[in-house]
Amino acid sequence: MLATKHVEDVGREILTLFNASKLEWDVVFVANATAAIKVVADAFNGAAGLGGGFIYRYHRDAHTSLVGVRQEEKKSWDLSCLGRLTTPKLTPPALFAYPAQSNLTGRRLPLQWAHFTLLDAAALLMTKLLDLQNPATSLDYITCSFYKIFGMPDLGAIIVKRGPAADILRKRKYFGGGTVNTLLTGTDYHSLKLGHPH
């Protein structure tokens, strides 16, 4: 119980750091920023009722962690080839990923783009904090590395907007450990613990 309280306290402190309301955002701790990106990709790939797969678009300035998501989904393309695409009759969920700050050029991109968005904020957060006080922002998943912000520990997180974005994470099919509300052995049912007390 003490460990759970510490994790929840740190989660609230992280939301405070980003000026994010605990009524609008949740924090999910992961090994690092790359692991955070992988969790979001896994959740989209396992979206219920669609037989897996999702449409993935990423910005050409994307870090290799974002580019690697191509391997986790069935339809992938770079923004540079969008003009050649045809619209499928049954559209699976779509995820757009981009870096808040390019690791290559240092260019900072807009923080309000299409829905669902996965923002890799690791490079940006080394020099600038995000302000998430406006819940109308279009960001849904923000990945960060505490190592890059503070120099330690080697830990990352996903800051998740409550609502449809959080619901997709709850539908993630792979489960190999961690905190869950319910686990029925001998079945494929588990309920991911997402969120914290208000």
Automatic annotation (TrEMBL):
Protein origin, superkingdom:
Eukaryota
- Please list the GO terms describing molecular function: molybdenum cofactor sulfurtransferase activity
**Which Gene Ontology biological process is one annotated for this entry?**
molybdopterin cofactor metabolic process
Note the PANTHER family from the entry.
MOLYBDENUM COFACTOR SULFURASE (PTHR14237:SF80), MOLYBDOPTERIN COFACTOR SULFURASE MOSC (PTHR14237)
Record's protein name: PLP-dependent transferase
Q: From what organism does this protein derive?
A: Terfezia boudieri ATCC MYA-4762
